[in-house]
Amino acid sequence: MNSATNKLWSVLSIVVVLLLFYFLAVRIGVVCALYGFNPDCCWLLRTGQIICDTGRLPEQDPFSYALAFARQQGDPQPYIIYQWLSEVIFFRAYLLFNLVQLAALAAVIYALSFVVIPLRSCLRFDVARPWLFGLVILEGLTSNLRNFIRPEVFTYLMTALLLSILQSLRLKYADGTHTHIGWRTIGACIVLLVLSCNIHITFIVHLLILFWYSLAFLAEDLVRKKDLSAVTKTVLLGTFLSTVATLINPYGIRLWLSVPSILYSPLAPNVVEMQELSMPLVVTDVLYFPYIALLIMTYLSIILYPMLKPEEGRLNLRSPLRLSSFLLIVICSVFGFHRIRYTVIGSMFIVFELTNLLASKQVAIEKRKGEFFWNKKYSLVALEIAIAIFACFGAYYAASKTNQLAIPTARRDFNPPFQGIKYLLKNYDGGRLFADHEVSDMCELYLQKCSIFQDTRYDGYDKIITSDYVRLLMAEAHWKEVLNGYKIEWVFAMKNQPIARALPSIPGWKIVYEDPVSVIFHKI
Question: Under a CB-based contact definition with an 8 Å cutoff, are residues 21 and 118 in contact?
């Protein structure tokens, strides 16, 4: 081919890649608008409102009378609002924006986390562009599994930023000219960890990755039999100071002590997102296809590395830095199947670490002849701005096609009973109310004097309370005694729930509202 033909093919390939990224951004925006407002948004917003109105964090649960009852019986449940900052941010944004704008804002954050930051960071390595674009696109599609407007949106953003910082340190280490401790890098890590420990309990993941990299850089220096490099000192200091900085939260060391009970709640296996990624789900649910494709592409790249790069020979795993990337890929793959919730964040780790592992040169690349787009600073800025715009467009487009954009949004398995909520707004007097988890979430947001049994904060309830909840909802053995024991005055049930069919036969209970979706009982 002559130079004109080569240039034409280059232009066409760039156009195709741009279109793929734009369609990906639109897809992210569409999913955020259609599925972003899950029931968890209700108690997140209501807790944020309480914090903003009172100017302090509540010391006891403001919603559940079951927790208050357990406390009276000598079984207090620890109450730590480990994501208070994100709740405040959500509530302030809720007051400032409408729901479409909130969905668009979330879409932009997801696009930054799963497309823009990984792309900009990994393009610094000498890797095949089509290969990298494929990884990023599959990672972006995998994010659709968790495009929810909840604290994890900030977790993903901070994870991407932290991985980008650590990846830049790998480049500095390979370059060998970095002779001073990077205090700005350390400061950035500290700021990220202070924000992270107040936004969500997954700050522990950010600390773990810092510890992991500290060991990898330290081992690399030991293998090379040289003194600690400036980069290693930077990572070690950053890890230590960031760990100390996580004590800058309203609970201090109590937050750390609560991590095991929150992450390993006995009720976690009952939550769908905390269950294993089963083979039937992988085969039947198309949302998981991109993740499986990402894993296939990842391990094929590792296996075929000697064939694709014969000049480099075998993959060098004797380097601790490269070995650490390989091990992280394996760990993330395992955890992605072990817990559905870890699938999305695992895909982000895989893209960064696979690039680290397979890069031909562990140094920043120079501009190469003929690459008139990807290595130009302003080309990337224009691309990133366009991705953000297209993500917003996707959210607005999806919202325009939706009959009712509300919190929570309807799903195939859940039709929010808004008409029943409207009835309670006029007639509910603040008595003890029983409803399923998701309806209880709605009551917390829309009823200012709400007293519910149990909501979707599953890590906050013990097995006894959850057992009583199931017994009531399913109208199982001794459910009447449980109903009376908790002195419940209102029951808000969906028509297909057993308690809705069983309660009319109990003396003293009256149907005060009914529609095709829900029924509300009140104790006379």
Answer: no
- Please state the domain extents for the chain: 3-55+68-364+375-398, 418-523
Gap between the terminal Cα atoms of the chain:
87
Dist CA 51 CA 92 (whole Å): 11
CA dist list (Å): 206 to 111, 156, 172, 243:
20, 10, 21, 10
C-alpha dihedral, 509 to 513 to 518 to 521, nearest 10° = -20
Phi-psi region of 249 (alpha: psi -120 to 50; beta: other; left: phi over 0): beta
Tens digit of each residue's pLDDT (9 = 90 or more) over 237-269: 999 999 999 999 999 999 998 888 777 666 555
pTM above 0.70, yes or no: yes
Give the separation between CA 122 and CA 505, rounded to whole angstroms.
Answer: 65
DSSP three-state, residue 511: strand
Tell me the sheet residues that pair with 324: none
Inter-residue long-range contacts of 366-375, CB under 8 Å, 24+ positions, other chains counted: 370/6, 370/10, 372/10, 373/14, 374/123, 374/129, 375/123
Q: In 3D, which of 328, 345, 205, 208 has the Cα closest to residue 273?
A: 345
For residues 317, 323, 325, 326, the Cα torsion angle rounded to the nearest 10 degrees is 70
pLDDT per residue over 47-78, tens digit each?
999 999 999 999 889 999 998 877 776 666 67
509-514 β-sheet, strand order: 433-435, 490-494, 518-523, 509-514
